[in-house]
Amino acid sequence: MFKRVRNKKFDYVPRFYDPVKDDLDTRLSSHQKERMNDTQMTKERIRSGLRARMPGNKAVAKKATLRSNIRLFIIIAILVVLAIKLLQSDFITKMIMTFEG
Q: What is the pTM of this model?
């Protein structure tokens, strides 16, 4: 009932071992890794070069900026109008009087 679970142990012994083949595989894998790193670095260099040369469509970016500015102006105008209406009304004084008792 209170038996502890123990880790499983594996005693794996390979049947065949060829030191020449193991050395060859080690050397090949190291060269493949270097080759893969060179390939990845080349791809990244090409991508960064393309990004630098193609900044995008300036007309689209300008239009998006204009829309954003107009939207911001409208939001600010609505907030200013609401603040003026709120300050001109008796709502704030009534609320203060309610909290005072």
A: 0.41
